[in-house]
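Late entry, written up from scratch paper. The run itself happened at the end of the previous shift, but nothing got recorded in the book at the time, so transcribing now.
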Amino acid sequence: METLWNTLVENVKFVGICLMIIVALALLAKLSEKWLPSLHRVSKTRRICIIAICSTLAAVLHMLDFPLPFLAPPFYKLDFSELPVMLCGFYLGPAAAVACEGIKILLKLLLKSTSTAFVGDFANFCVGCSLVLPAVIVYHVKKSRKSAIAGLATGTVSITVFGSAFNAIYLLPKFAQLYGMPLEAIIGMGSDINSSITDISTFVLLAVAPLNLIKGLMISVLTMLLYKRVARPLFGK
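Output as recorded:
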């Protein structure tokens, strides 16, 4: 009975922390728009339609994730779902990007459920926002090719640093707790891939950080290649 109660308490704490972080990111995105002079002003209906389209595309891409077994354990997967989110943010701004990221996760859960006790889904949202939000904010300060490159570079650094720290401090211990897998077993899965991984610090440094760096770089390159090309058919720009 005591074990069941402790499990319930931990689950409630996890949900509470998730909600607080989600609200904080949404508020940060909304407040940042007050200092961004170059946001597109579109009708509410059109804004909702664009977010819905990008969220749906992102959810589909999220479900097409794939592992990099030479780099990280199989529960770490790479996907391109931040690409539609980034495109949406470049056009509509940071608040739309966070909304798109959140709806993407909800759609994925509805269509595919979770295999990581919801920790992986929460991680995808937070780490995705750590890439998209800085990139979108920097781009909208003064929209140009240079600011787009600067924003995407900032986002790539952010996802690499924040993703690693957040995994080490919170996500990995919480995943081990909620999923019922000892943290030592997770580190052992990393050691099987790279013998230099011996603890949680080397795990995030040698497995998580490179994975996030690869994702940031690939989304950045694809955004630069596609944004101008899809702006007219996707946004009517």
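The chain has a mean pLDDT of 87.
(Scratch paper discarded after transcription.)
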